[in-house]
Structure formats: C-alpha cells, structure tokens
Amino acid sequence: xxxxxxxxxxxxxxxxxxxxxxxxxxxxxxxxxxxxxxxxxxxxxxxxxxxxxxxxxxxxxxxxxxxxxxxxxxxxxxxxxxxxxxxxxxxxxxxxxxxxxxxxxxxxxxxxxxxxxxxxxxxxxxxxxxxxxxxxxxxxxxxxxxxxxxxxxxxxxxxxxxxxxxxxxxxxxxxxxxxxxxxxxxxxxxxxxxxxxxxxxxxxxxxxxxxxxxxxxxxxxxxxxxxxxxxxxxxxxxxxxxxxxxxxxxxxxxxxxxxxxxxxxxxxxxxxxxxxxxxxxxxxxxxxxxxxxxxxxxxxxxxxxxxxxxxxxxxxxxxxxxxxxxxxxxxxxxxxxxxxxxxxxxxxxxxxxxxxxxxxxxxxxxxxxxxxxxxxxxxxxxxxxxxxxxxxxxxxxxxxxxxxxxxxxxxxxxxxxxxxxxxxxxxxxxxxxxxxxxxxxxxxxxxxxxxxxxxxxxxxxxxxxxxxxxxxxxxxxxxxxxxxxxxxxxxxxxxxxxxxxxxxxxxxxxxxxxxxxxxxxxxx
Length: 524
Ligand code: ATP
Ligand code: MG
Fold this sequence. Notes:
The protein is of the alpha/beta class. 39% of the residues lie in helices and 19% in strands. It folds into three domains: 19-107, Elongation Factor Tu (Ef-tu), domain 3 (Beta Barrel), CATH 2.40.30; 155-386, Rossmann fold (3-Layer(aba) Sandwich), CATH 3.40.50; 390-518, ATP synthase alpha/beta chain, C-terminal domain (Lysin, Up-down Bundle). It has helices at residues 3-20, 60-65, 162-167, 186-196, 217-229, 247-265, 278-291, 305-313, 344-352, 361-366, 388-408, 419-435, 445-456, 468-482, 484-493, 498-514; strands at 25-32, 35-39, 48-52, 70-77, 82-87, 98-105, 107-110, 118-119, 136-139, 156-157, 170-171, 177-180, 207-215, 236-242, 270-276, 327-335, 355-359, 378-379. α8 (305-313) runs parallel beside α9 (344-352) and α11 (388-408) packs across α12. It starts with a helix and ends in a 10-residue tail after the last helix. Bound molecules: adenosine-5'-triphosphate and magnesium ion.
C-alpha cells in the first residue's frame, strides 16, 4: 500500500473521529405537555439524563450542582431532534434554553440513609428531613440477573396474614401480584406485610420499599403515619408520586424502587418492594408515549407495555450464594374493573408474576376480610419456602374450604341436610371465621401455626360459629401466658416436633376446660 493511501485512510479515520465527538450542548426547539424537542444533541443516548441550563452562564458542573437543577430524560432519538421528557416543572423550560448532556444514563443516588425516608423518583427527599447521605448512583434501568446468578426461592416472606401465609405462601425473591377491584383491601395487604416484618429478627428483616404510583397525597401521608405508628418506618423507604405529577415521574417511580432495592440486594440483604399500582403505571406510560407520538397499540397502550412490566418485575430475584444471597421480593398491585382479570394489563402482569392474590368485592362486602378468593389465588413457588410447621397445618384448611365452597350452594336448603353435611358446613364456616383478620394487625407465623393447629384439632368443636374469633383470641393469649415455650419453640425451630404437638394437645384440652363459657351452645 502506498504511503499516500495510508495517509488518506488516516485522515478519513480522523474525520470520523471528529464527527462522532459528542456535541454536548443543544437548544430547546419547542416544548409542550412535558416534552421538549431538542436540536443539536445528535449523539445523545437513549435514557440519558440531560440538564436544562435554566440559569445562564453556568458550566455543566455548576448547573448540576444547583439545588433545583432541572433534568430531562432522553426517550426518543429521531432523525433531526431528540425528544426529552422534562422531569419537573415544564414551565421552567422555554424555547431557546440550552440543554447539556450529562453522559450519564438515568440513575439515582442511594445510600444506607435512604431507609426511613420519603423520596421522589429521582431520589430527592420530600419529607422535609434534610439531605440523604448517598453512597453511589444506581441505574434506573438495567438488565436483570441471569439464571446462573440466581438461586431457588427457599425462605419465606411472612405477610402476617393467616389466609396468605397458610395457603398462598410467598418466598423471598418471588413476584406475587395483588389484584382486585377498587377498595377491596389491596394496599392494606401490602402494608400489613410491611408491618409484619417487625417480627422478623433484625438480621433477617427485609428492607421494605413502598412505591406509590399516582396515589393521592393524603393517602400516602396516612399510609406513612400508619407505618410510623407501627414502628415500620425504621426499615422502610417510600418512593412517592402523586396523581397531580407529570406522567414521566409516575413512569419512573417503580424503576427507582427497583434500583433502591438492588442497592440493598447487592449487599446480600433481603428487600420487599410494593408497586402500588401498576395499572396507574401503565396509564402514565400510555400518556407519556402518546405525547412522544409513539404508535398506540391495543387499548391505546404502546406496543412495548408488556416488555416494560416484564423488565421491571424480572429484576426481583434471589441471588446465588456466590453473589451474596440477597433478594428482592416484589408485590405489584393491579386494579381491575368489575373483577375482569382478562383485560389487557391484568393478563400481562398475571403472566409475568409467580402467582396472584385475588381480592373479591362480594367477599369484601360480605365482611370476609381480607377478601381473598381462595379458589383462584395461587402462589407458584412459595410453598418450597414455607416453614415445615406451617406446611403441616395448612393442608387441612385448603381441604375444608374447598369442601365448604361446594356445599355452600346447598345451604339455602339447610333444613333438608343430613347431619354429616350440616357438620361439615359448620366446620367450614369456622375456618372462614378463622381466616378473617382485621387490618393493620398482622400475626407472627408461630401464632398462626398454633391457631390453625388448634382449629384442626378440636378447639372450635362444640362452639358457636359466632364465638370462633373470641375463642381464637383468648386461646392465643392463653398460649402466651401458659405455653410461651411452645410459641418460641416454633419460632426458632420452625417445625412441629412431637414434643410441641404433645404440648399443644394438652393446651387445647386445658383451655377448653378453663373456658367453658365459650362452649355453652344455645343451639337446640
Ligand atoms: P384503592 O382501590 O382505593 O387503592 P385498595 O384496594 O387498595 O383501594 P384499601 O385502601 O387497602 O383498598 O382498603 C379499602 C378499605 O377497606 C379501607 O377503608 C380499609 O380500611 C378497609 N379494609 C381493608 N382491609 C380490611 C380488613 N382486613 N378489615 C377491615 N377493613 C379493611
Ligand atoms: Mg390502594
């Protein structure tokens, strides 16, 4: 090759290099509906953060250091412009404002101190308790861990709700959907689960992250007050967005929650994340996509809505021992319309998760709360994480309830029923009573085991259905008073040993003798 040719190629390469040098500063061409079109940022990357130079004459560094720095997120790369969503007040962006690249994909600052705080999706504290010492930036979007980096689900997350821990057990690293119509107790289940973590020993207690997506501010505030009153804010972070905020912030919120979760998971800790709720998230994404003029698909949602939610939920994981064994358990929430689980977004999320807790309006109105529809609620992986003690006692409940549901249809002809059927219906009703539970009153698993064991072994025999709840409460009090060793034995050993069973049987007899008043039946 001639030297002239080599020189020419070198020159060409140099020209190429010049062409690809990032142009760091662009200019807003137009702005509206929270979206800014920007000229001159031809080398910007998808999901890169840009910052608007709202104050003239500052360098990139100075602009970034402003306390009210206004960020944008690159979401559309088009031929001659990039479209950026404004992550904040759109009114501060005017035509002609300079925009600088940060060369950083969207990420949020996270540190240990974020626990106990309320932040927005960009990690900025909004609880008025001052700044948060940050440790590192966690990317908002990233590829989830692969199969080889994960281990099987083998440890339970106890929700403190009898019906769930016994029949729909959740494991650390699992994704369990909470689905139901408006006002059926979805949020309550998630919050009770967070509250219940206070019963876990400190070293095993998951860090909890509650992500409020487009919730009313007053709701989030009262939820926080509840967590605080229960002592649960100590290990909880709230990522809050309200209905009045711009759709891009709502869109980012669950991804921020996942990013905060990953920070702790990578230290080998367990994390529980609640996404309340992904229906509102889907709506925010739809709105944002329409504004970005992406083509609408089914029900006007953009075509990649399934991919969006699967990307998010795939990030919950149980890491292998080599990677520290941390985990993220996800409890996404979906609101249905009139119980229709076959609508677009519900079916999507059902197929991405490892099971669902289905809440039913009719049951809720009948006073069966939590309004769990046992027939169609499932947990596909959690049973391998259930404690031996719970596994032993839970089988019978499922059977009793299934039989009860079948017989329930006949109940209107009660007078024609034979003795055996009547007895079974009576027993089924007592189990339904047993599984009712007040809100914000999670029960530690060892007490659940004891109560269910006793129900299986005659505690409610000869009592009225109406007395079941009273009997359960005073039996648990009795156990705490007289048989603390049984409760602590189950808590630490997680098994029903022969010795414990013997003590339990003794306790049931002793309790019934001492509480004859519950067993005077006035049924003729
Ligand atoms: P939304 O659709 O508005 O988000 P939701 O499905 O999240 O509602 P919650 O807000 O959890 O439902 O509960 C609805 C109402 O039912 C609340 O007033 C709550 O206090 C009540 N509730 C929930 N669970 C129980 C329960 N186990 N016992 C008694 N009341 C309950
Ligand atoms: Mg709710």
